[in-house]
Amino acid sequence: MDRFDYHDGVLHCEEVNLEDVAAEYGTPTYVYSRDTFRTHLADLTAAFAELDPLVCYAVKTCGNLHLLHELGQAGAGADVVSGGELHRALTAGIPAERIVFAGVGKSEDELREAVTAGIGCVNVESESELELLDRVAAGAGRTVRAAIRVNPDVEGHGTPQKTTTGTRGSKFGVDLERVPGLFARAIALSHVRLVGLHMHLGSPIYSPEPYVRALTRLLDLLAKLNADGHEIELINIGGGFAADYETGLAPGWDAYAAAIVPLLKPFVANGGRVVTEPGRSIAANAGVLLTRVRYLKDAGGHRVAVVDAGMTNMIRAAFYDSFHFMWPVRPAGALVPPSRSEHPRLAGLHRYDVAGPICESSDYLARDRALPSLAEGDLICLFAAGAYGMAMASQYNSSLRPAEVLVEGADSRLIRRRDTYADLVEAELALPGTRF
Ligand SMILES: Cc1ncc(COP(=O)(O)O)c(C=O)c1O
Ligand SMILES: N[C@@H](CCCC[NH3+])C(=O)O
What is its quaternary makeup (predicted)? Predict the structure, then answer.
């Protein structure tokens, strides 16, 4: 359940009026509900309770330190994919042993940082990485726990091609049939303890069925590895649980758990540990993006609303053609939608292209979208923006990355200030003879 709702015709996050947030912090601004983050983590953990999993939140989804700290305090670990994300997770106070590290192209420095920090598990994605990890760990005088990220050759369900990771030929992971060879090789490695199997099929996956197919293959592999004398202590099932972008389209965590838990119960009963790496399903509906209409214009018979948030602030529609429900914060005629999917039935709507200010023809947040009548200056809320929103923001066009605000009950606080012009140039070297 998310906590974004209309009261007296105005959208609120928990008890905070979003017009007040926009007035105080400006737009575009990401607004997160602390309660939603925590509730999502608790609900997911409860759904998988029989496996007592370690939930490693995927930092790439939405990695503000304050949010990581909240999740860490609530018991989550972190899934990281770079030295930068490792730095974030550790800075936010997430204990190293609860951190897992995936990624096809980890550098030697990144591996050293992970080993030195003493993270829980490195998810190795190639033969060469396994060898390098052993050398790095030996150099640091440490022993590191590792898993092999397996490519089970299973497609997602409703998963875009661009975000599919577990099919044959993908750059991610190691082909199933090559995995026994890596375990055999690891016996001779003195500083890597190869103890786990990892998979991540893609994102989002709108059905439990691909998990079942992939885990069945992983468990067959596990039996073979056991028969070869290898002990597997850990199975990491990755992330990919869908978020509710349009009411009713995403399965709940209970539906995923009902299919996955029975498969992994025997493994857990034998002392095995299960890890999961959810990102989107925790963060998406815990955050929204507030944007203001700058101009209304007619373009070839289309109503165009030019808003102050562009693809640099939220790239998902431009990059993946993703659908994000949007609605005015104070809709004209008090047209509050009964649900995200039922809004087209409301009378009195108009169709708008909602465009950003960036100099790219793909810079639209939505095309031909039915909305209540808009006026210049109106505030619009883009829902389910907490995942891969701010995390994918860029400074293209020297665009300032948005502010981030965290709401807790009736309080709101800034957890990241908006970029400034100084931020845009601070990493660039001063021009000779100038202060810049
Ligand atoms: C290795 C890994 N784990 C977890 C995730 C999180 O996925 P999601 O946000 O779909 O839960 C990702 C991103 O797709 C990933 O690459
Ligand atoms: N960034 C993507 C998902 C890819 C996840 C990366 N492993 C999104 O916005 O949906």
Answer: Homodimer.
29-41: string of b/e by CB count within 10 Å (b at 16+)? Answer: bbbbbbbbbbbbb
List, in order of start, the domains of the chain with CATH numbers.
Answer: 4-31+284-425 (2.40.37.10), 103-276 (3.20.20.10)
> Are 243 and 387 contacting, i.e. CB atoms less than 8 angstroms apart?
yes
pTM over 0.90, yes/no: yes
CB of 388 within 6 A of ligand 2: the answer is yes
Q: What is the mean pLDDT of each run of 10 residues along the chain (436 residues)?
A: 89 98 98 98 98 98 98 98 98 98 98 98 98 98 98 93 92 97 98 98 96 98 98 98 90 97 98 98 98 98 97 97 97 86 86 98 97 98 98 98 98 98 91 72
ipTM exceeds 0.85: yes
Maximum pairwise Cα distance, the chain: 72
Residue 46: Cβ within 10 Å count = 11
Sequence-distant (6+) residues with CB within 8 A of 58 are: 78, 79, 239, 277, 278, 279, 280
C-alpha closest to that of 104 among 88, 85, 125, 83: 125
Which residues are bridge partners to 198 per DSSP?
149, 236
CA–CA separation, 212 vs 220, rounded Å? 12
With beta carbons less than 8 A apart as the criterion, state whether 176 and 150 touch. Answer: yes
**Ligand 2 atom showing the smallest separation from residue 162 Cα:** 4
Which one of the ligands is nearest to 392 CA?
Answer: 2
| Cis before 402 (ω within 30) | no
Please state, as a whole number, how many other Cβ atoms lie within 10 Å of the Cβ of residue 321. Answer: 12
* Conformational region of residue 169, where left means phi above 0, alpha means psi within -120 to 50, and beta covers everything else: left
